[in-house]
Design brief:
The protein has 108 residues and is mainly alpha-helical. Helices cover 60% and strands 0% of the residues. It has one domain: Transferase(Phosphotransferase) domain 1 (Transferase(Phosphotransferase), domain 1, Orthogonal Bundle), CATH 1.10.510. It comes from Staphylococcus aureus.
Amino acid sequence: MDYPLLKTRGLQNVVDPLPVSEAEFLTRYKALVICAFNEKQSFDALVEGNLELHKGTPFETKVIEAATLDLLTAFLDEQYQKQEQDYSQNYAYVRKVGHTVLNGSLSV
C-alpha cells in the first residue's frame, strides 16, 4: 500500500526541518482529510486539539477513530472504491450539445 508523503522544510544552513512523529503525522493527515470534505472546519483548530472533540458525519467519525496510518489508508481506499463503483453504476456522461438541444426542445 502506498503511504502519503510528507515534505518538511527549513531554512538552508540556518534551521533544519522539524521532525514529525508518526502520531503527529496521523493527526495532521486526519485533519487534512476532514477539511477536504468539510469546508466549515479549520485545519489548524483540528490539529491543535479539536480533532478528538469533533462531532461530524459518520465518515469523519471513522476517520478520527482510525488508530494507525494503515487503518486510515485502508478505510479511505475502501470508501473510494465504493464511490467509484456507485458512480460507474448509477451515472452516465451526457454530451453538452445533446443536452442543450434536448433541453431547448422541451421548453417550447
